[in-house]
Amino acid sequence: KAILIATDFAKDINIDKNEFNRLISLDLNQLIKDDTNIKFEYRARYLMKYLDIKYIYIMSVIPNSQVKYKVEKDEENLYNKSEGTPLKVIYLLDAVINDIERNKDMTDGKYLDKDRYTIINDEYIKVCKNKKAIYFFNRDKWGNYLTAYTPIYDNNGRFMGVMGVDIYLRHYLRLANNNIYSIVGISIIISIIAIIKIIKLSKENYSANNKIKKLSICSLTYALNRGSFMEKLKDEFDDSKKNKRHISI
């Protein structure tokens, strides 16, 4: 689902080189008030409120000359990168599910300038290399999510970055649990049907054996009838011949 949303959303993005340069010149507080981001977020929120998505965003790599921040020593676990790793990725456009959640991400009612940047993760590199959408479990400073990345291009068809969609992990786990319950329920039903069939076949076999047994015995004397006697005699004869012993009936 996350991949489909990211891929579909990316189709309607139209950003040229001048607009790209203008957007990366803004800090995050300026960006969220910019008309381009307001329109992007308005469209994104229409989907997000129905699909339990927290973030939809575009990420792009900035030139080395514009890198302002690096991973600090106390941030190594947060970014899963060593101290000094440059934050070379910028959130070009950013949408949050609602203003309440956006305010939770802020510090004293504002974003820190550093909040707009992050590291180039392995998944970004994979999409950049293969130009194919992927999804993965993501843990970063903003939380834990099921994330989808899909490649996004400028209006000249050049690779510009990735469109990202973050689904609440609790929503994914809830769906996964529902699927597990469905699978278990189906398995139980199949097992019950199988047991019923086994019992039914056992009864049918038991009934058939009784009928065969009754046909082999005389109803008056309860002794073997002539056909059954000759069949048993033949079996005994063959067995005695094979094992070199006397016939016994």
Structural description of this entry:
The protein is an alpha+beta fold. The chain has 2 domains: 2-168, 2-Layer Sandwich (Beta-Lactamase), CATH 3.30.450; 176-243. Helix content is 50%, strand content 19%. It has helices spanning 2-10, 17-24, 28-31, 35-51, 76-79, 99-105, 122-130, 169-216, 226-243; strands spanning 53-61, 89-96, 117-118, 134-140, 143-153, 159-168. A 6-stranded antiparallel sheet has the order 3-2-1-6-5-4, with helices on both faces. A hairpin with a 5-residue loop joins strand 5 and strand 6. The longest helix has 48 residues, at 169-216. Mean pLDDT is 77; it is low at 175-189.
Please identify the top-level CATH class of the largest domain.
Answer: Alpha Beta
Mean pLDDT: 77
Order of helices and strands: HHHHEHEHEHEEEHH
Percent helix, as a range, is 40-55%
Shape: elongated
And the CATH topology of the largest domain?
A: Beta-Lactamase
**Low-confidence runs of at least 5 consecutive residues:** 175-189
Distance between the termini: 75 Å
User: If you compute it from the alpha carbons, what radius of gyration comes out, rounded to the nearest whole angstrom?
Assistant: 36 Å
CATH-level-4 superfamily name of the largest domain = PAS domain
User: What is the level-2 CATH architecture name of the largest domain?
Assistant: 2-Layer Sandwich
How many β-strands, per DSSP? 6
The tally of helices reads: 9
Proportion in β-strands: 15-25%
InterPro entries: Sensor-like_sf
Keywords: Membrane, Transmembrane, Transmembrane helix
Organism: Clostridium botulinum CFSAN001627
Protein name: Putative diguanylate cyclase
